[in-house]
């Protein structure tokens, strides 16, 4: 599945993304709200998320982006949280 996603979304010699998560705080801890084929929609501790990320020179190969306009972000996160426990689509 990862290969199909990167082939469909990436371009040669550019970053190819195969997974996206939303950075959240869960019980005061940095976490990632994500959907995975083996765990469905779940909240993953940031350390665990980084530990299973692809590596470049031994370091996690992740990109962090922040929205300029944060209008509606809290509502979007609350909506996404309603899917926790649902299977991966």
Description:
This protein is of the alpha+beta class. The chain has a domain at about 20-80. It is built from three helices and five strands. The chain has helices spanning about 1-10, 45-50, 75-80, and strands spanning about 20-25, 30-35, 40-45, 55, 60. The strands form two sheets. The protein has a three-stranded antiparallel beta sheet. A two-stranded antiparallel ribbon has the order 4-5. The protein starts with a helix and ends in an 8-residue tail after the last helix. The mean pLDDT is about 85.
Q: How are the SSEs ordered, and which strands pair?
A:
Elements: H1 2-9, E1 22-26, E2 29-36, E3 40-45, H2 46-51, E4 55-56, E5 59-60, H3 73-81
Antiparallel strand pairs: 1-2, 2-3, 4-5
Give a brief rundown of this model.
This protein has a domain at 20-81.
Give structural attributes:
89 residues; alpha+beta; 3-stranded antiparallel beta sheet; two-stranded antiparallel ribbon; 3 helices; 26% helix; 26% strand; globular
What percent strand? 25-35%
Helix and strand sequence: HEEEHEEH
Q: State the share of residues found in helices, binned by percent.
A: 25-40%
The biggest sheet, with number of strands, parallel, antiparallel or mixed sense and barrel status, is:
3 strands, antiparallel
Helix- and strand-based class? alpha+beta
Spatial strand arrangement across the major sheet: 1-2-3
Mean pLDDT: 84
Q: How many helical elements?
A: 3
Number of E-state strands: 5
- Our measurement of the CA-to-CA distance between the termini, rounded to an integer number of angstroms, reads 12 Å
Shape: globular
